[in-house]
Write a structure and sequence with these properties.
Layout (H helix, E strand, L loop, with lengths): L2 H40 L2 H35 L1 H34 L6 H30 L5 E3 L2 E3 L3 H5 L2 H32 L4 H35 L1 H8 L5 E2 L3 E3 L2 E3 L4 E3 L2 E3 L2 H7 L5 E2 L13 H32 L6 H10 L2 H15 L4 E3 L3 E2 H4 L7 H27 L6 H4 L3 H11 L8
Antiparallel strand pairs: 1-2, 3-8, 4-7, 5-6, 9-10
Helix pairs in contact: 1-2, 1-4, 1-6, 1-7, 1-14, 2-3, 2-7, 2-14, 3-4, 4-6, 6-7, 6-11, 6-12, 7-8, 7-10, 8-10, 10-11, 10-12
Length: 459
């Protein structure tokens, strides 16, 4: 394994691990806030229990995300010193703002966790809202920085060095502006469906449990609405990619030749020797129509760029197809849930829908991992599109196989620890029928909190 391959593998492993916790850090606080809002509105103890369980989960996952994020920040400097030295003055503002959002989230998460009975109802709910917003803000600034790597702006090159740097223009690059809503929607959809799947699984065994019923409805609402908007966001982003990164779009779609009236292709196996996509199902003129709203529009193919600038077509195409199929399935399940709610006024009593939600649970994270694979591998061989190649940015330090093994072991350990904690957290969820659920320790805790002034007694 070459140094470049080792650096790429280590970075891929770290990013793939971290993004799971980053995504949950965006989605779970929103559901936590919704659950508390419902408790304040209804006074139902089950919402208090749900809020506190999700708050504990947010804290655990936030801690692991902070660890993996810190590792990533060091790896950027150690593995890619050429990139950081060149790009640091340009995108440093975005990373600084991300750090500010991270510390804001940490501070208000602490206030939220330790503010029960100490803050007023509005202040406590407000702290939760800040946690949710700052988590989304962290994603916003990171994605804007990544978007700059796709479509660099805000500088001029003189003697191979950036000059006349405008950090604000760099952040407001076209790729980043449209990647942000796509990423945040993906985070809400993935978190919503995985949480819904967990509670759907419990409802299949305990259908009358109000705790899981309430959790399932909130998670389905967050995940389902996001999944329905996600294809719209993806369509807009695809048009941006077609305009600014035609080689990446061609790899996404398996478009080897530039042609007018290009078809949309489902499946298929890229044949690099013959320069075509074998065994694909084609919908005539559909790609031209989707990208340019014109069935006769010309779509640039991989033949429009030199062969040495082609991304790894097989990997990019496969990842893009996985993302699309997972997104379509999630949107279909969301439509099914909306139909059940409209016809029956409930989504918790359909066993088939519960079973489908359990099966859909991991697809959001699969789509995110596949989507980022397509995005980052599709940019290759550039680390900064059209400006710096990845091979030019890698560290000259040899022996990267050792940290690769060490970090792989670290991530396996952290993953096992998180799985163990969450398993016991979920296993401790209230069981039984509603009359037994709102009794005992949970009710005493709720009464104590109310007596402290955290919530008014419902009318």
């Amino acid at each position: 394994m070459t140094d470049l391959q080792a650096a790429r593998t280590l970075m891929t492993m770290s990013l793939g691990f971290h993004i799971v916790f980053a995504v949950v850090g965006i989605g779970l606080p929103l559901m936590m806030v919704v659950a508390e809002w419902r408790w304040l509105r209804t006074g139902e103890v089950v919402y208090l229990t749900l809020t506190q369980r999700w708050a504990k989960g947010t804290a655990v996952l936030f801690a692991i995300g902070a660890i993996s994020g810190t590792v990533l920040s060091f790896q950027l400097g150690l593995l890619w010193p050429g990139f950081m030295a060149w790009a640091g003055p340009i995108i440093g503002l975005a990373f600084s703002l991300e750090g500010f959002a991270f510390f804001t989230e940490a501070i208000f998460l602490g206030l939220y966790l330790y503010g029960w009975g100490r803050l007023s109802p509005a202040a406590h709910l407000g702290a939760g809202i800040v946690v949710a917003l700052s988590g989304a803000a962290s994603a916003l600034f990171v994605v804007l920085a990544n978007g700059w790597m796709q479509t660099p702006r805000g500088f001029r090159i003189v003697d191979a060095q950036p000059t006349e740097i405008d950090p604000l223009a760099a952040m407001l690059n076209p790729s980043g502006l449209f990647q942000v809503p796509h990423m945040i929607l993906a985070a809400y959809a993935a978190t919503g469906f995985v949480v819904a799947g967990i509670h759907a699984f419990r409802l299949l065994r305990d259908p009358d449990n109000q705790f899981h019923q309430r959790a399932f409805v909130i998670a389905c609402a967050v995940g389902g609405v996001s999944a329905l908007f996600q294809p719209v966001s993806g369509d807009i982003l695809a048009k941006v990619v077609a305009k600014h990164q035609p080689a990446k779009l061609a790899a996404f779609e398996g478009q080897f030749s530039t042609e007018s009236g290009a078809p949309f292709r489902l499946g298929g196996i890229p044949d690099l020797e013959q320069g075509r996509l074998r065994y694909a199902i084609e919908i005539p003129s559909a790609l031209s129509l989707m990208l340019y709203l014109d069935p006769h529009a010309t779509v640039a193919g991989l033949d429009a760029v030199p062969r040495e600038e082609w991304p790894p077509v097989g990997v990019v195409r496969a990842a893009f197809q996985i993302m699309i199929l997972a997104g379509i399935w999630m949107a279909a399940v969301a439509l099914w849930g909306a139909w059940l709610w409209w016809r029956r006024g409930s989504i918790v009593h359909s066993r088939r829908f519960l079973q489908a939600t359990v099966g859909t649970a991991p697809l959001g994270f699969l789509a995110i991992e596949a989507g980022w694979t397509a995005t980052e591998v599709g940019r290759q061989p550039w680390i900064i599109t059209g400006v710096m190649r990845t091979a030019e940015a890698v560290t000259p330090m040899p022996g990267l196989i050792v940290p690769l093994i060490v970090f792989a072991a670290l991530y396996l350990f952290l993953a096992a620890a998180v799985a163990w904690v969450l398993f016991h957290q979920i296993g401790a969820s209230p069981r039984g029928k509603p009359d037994r659920q709102d009794s005992g320790e949970t009710r005493r805790e709720a009464l104590t909190v109310r007596a402290s002034g955290i919530v008014e007694k419902p009318e």
